[in-house]
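Possible regression after last week's pipeline update?

I re-ran a chain I had predicted before the update to compare outputs. Posting the input and the new output here so someone can diff against the archived version. Not blocking, just want to make sure nothing changed silently.
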Amino acid sequence: MSATKKNIVILGGGLCGLKVAIDLAKKMQKNPQKLAQYRLIVVNETNVHVYHSDLYEIASAYNEKITQACLTAMEDSVCIKINDVAKKAGFTFYRDRITKIDPDKKTITLKKRKNLDFEYLVVALGSVTNYYGDTSIEEHSFPLKELTDALTINCHIDQLFRERWEKKGKEKVSIAIGGGGATGIEFSCELIGFLNKLSKKYEFSKKDLDLCIIDGGYEFLKLGKKPNSIVKKRLRSLGIKPMQGTYIKGYENGELLLEDKKTKEKSAKKNDVLIWTGGIKANPLLSSFEKINKHGELDVDPMLECKEYRKIYAGGDNATIMHPRTGELVPKTGQFAAQEGKIIASNIWADINQQYKKQFKPFLKGYLVPLGGKKYMFIRGKLVFTGIIPFLMKKVHDIMYFNWYMPLSTAVKRIFTKEKIFVQND
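New output (post-update):
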């Protein structure tokens, strides 16, 4: 390998980061001259790319007996090995922890390897859970952000039921989901099936189950009145209590400390398990940059290049991106992260070849929201509907997603295997 090669470094193995890597690698493979001049490197702390859209399935997947085999099967259903993608696509993968980014010296400090210099940098590190400074919630809740979170929740709830069964007590099991966004809604709708199965397994009365979802606003999903109405109706039909206009202000002595948004009236609610899906915030590594905005993120221009740092691009949860037509913030969702990755790859390649770069023009394909079992909802503006069509759309989407990283036949097989694991709650 030539020592004179310049590095194009991508920080993060999520949707945006891998999209940049795969697209850029394709372009470089077709141009031997540029391939000899540049080395494409992805840095990620783990060797897994997680399909975050299905983490709620892992957290609520029923198993008659929790074994290493079943845990491995669940992991394989949502994880893709980054080194396998790297070998297929033709980029270099470093499994390492990033400890510091120096945009002025153009170096990345890694825990295991020596400093990594770069000519171009892509910041796609993802986000972290936002507890809004409340340490009591952070200490007593379970986030649902990574694979380990989902597996921890699954095992913890099973163990909770087992302990109640062993004690032969009649105490209620009280579980709350904090946050009424997409993650909170899809998880709560699937969780009730898991809890019903556990109730049967451990001879627990369903009447002694207390499952609620708590949100500070008055509109679940924040995608309009109709989706909110459909969600509330679905929650109630499943036996889940929707609590809107309610803030979780803390956790103390096994109780949630609540406050009514309108009246400011305070109350306490018994709680055994709190799953926190209340929001995200910028990755702490972005503090390496002196010039970040009030959100702790990087400001980018319409080409997704950082306004304050030449040849540094940012996407996904790390960039504040304004919609060129509406002037509103582009939502931090998977469909936009993939689009951002594609544009970043295109613009780095254009810059290398001294060509015109493209502006990012986000396109909303719509939102598919799981509502438990085979019930899904499709939302795109005023177009909102449920039924078999959104369910089939989700399966097609899943196949297309995995087909980015593997052959179509393998992607289809993976989806069918995944269905066999998760269908037990339905």
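Follow-up from reviewer: compared with the archived run. The CA atoms of residues 142 and 209 lie 19 Å apart. Marking as no regression found.
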